[in-house]
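To the team - magnesium ion complex, inputs and output below.
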Amino acid sequence: MAERRQERATLLDGARVAEEIKAEVREEVARLEREHGIIPCLVTVLVGDDPASAVYVRNKVNTSIALGLRSEHHALPHETSTEQLLALIAQLNARADVDGILVQLPLPKGVDAMRILEAIDPAKDVDGFHPVNVGRMMLGQTALPPCTPAGIIELLDRYGIAIGGAHACVVGRSNIVGRPVAQLLLQRDATVTICHSRTRDLAALTRQADILIVATGRVALIRGEHIKPGAVVIDVGTNRVTDEETIRALFGERAEERVNALRRRGYTLVGDVHPAEAEKVAGYLTPVPGGVGPLTVAMLMRNTVMAARQRRLRSN
Ligand SMILES: Nc1nc(=O)c2c([nH]1)NC[C@@H]1CN(c3ccc(C(=O)N[C@@H](CCC(=O)O)C(=O)O)cc3)C=[N+]21
Ligand SMILES: [Mg+2]
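Output:
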């Protein structure tokens, strides 16, 4: 008898997995305080007033507090100089009570972002962006992996999706998602293809993928024709869409809820994968919102606790 494919992809509930991870982190935080008198502290730094960045940072602050971490937030004006930021980071590096330092990206054009990231003590680099931590990750010795890539691996593991031997195709080569997630997948014995804006015949490569990870920031780059039937599709895009036309094209018969959200908030969040088309072809699919985004925050919390334990107790 011919194999019957399911009608629609199973949604991978990143928000639910993030709640599980956060519950584990909350317990670990309580244990650290009870047994060692340690309360891990995450410092967030936001430069300028980009509204999306403000939402993300507020989410990180609120989550820290909800899990029993200490949170300290620095909001700096758009005009802040590289030197002023370096001075703040030097202070935070020197403070024994600070476990994690997160400088929200993107930084304003006038700031030398690479100099800032390199100034953060690698032991407090909870984003995993410092060259030392990137290098350690390449060697498979990572203590503080970048949050979004680590969250994606965690999601696959918790859904029992096998990585070893799978063909994973990563679309996008950013330092914060594409390159590092390709590396983590390789360490787990996937065969990895990395595609980008100069790739010829993208669909020919993505269609071979058992696991397709998309992190480009381009709305609906990945259509049904890019996806192998039954594949696992991880959509890392978080794009704000403000026009009703686009939303109707992306969500088809399910557009109404999104259109209402748009009218309420002025935008709705969509990924890099065409949701209505992908649902008909993929076996598993992460939604946007409620997929990879919440996992990023959960892994940041886990990294902060790990940084506290390693730096203060010199153990894992
Ligand atoms: N130093 C630094 N570290 C980062 O990790 C970092 C950064 N800079 N700059 C920006 C990107 C983006 N990012 C997200 C985090 C959470 C959601 C998230 O929680 N999204 C929710 C929805 C949020 C909403 O409604 O807007 C979701 O997808 O369900 C999204 C995106 C972290 N980043
Ligand atoms: Mg991210």
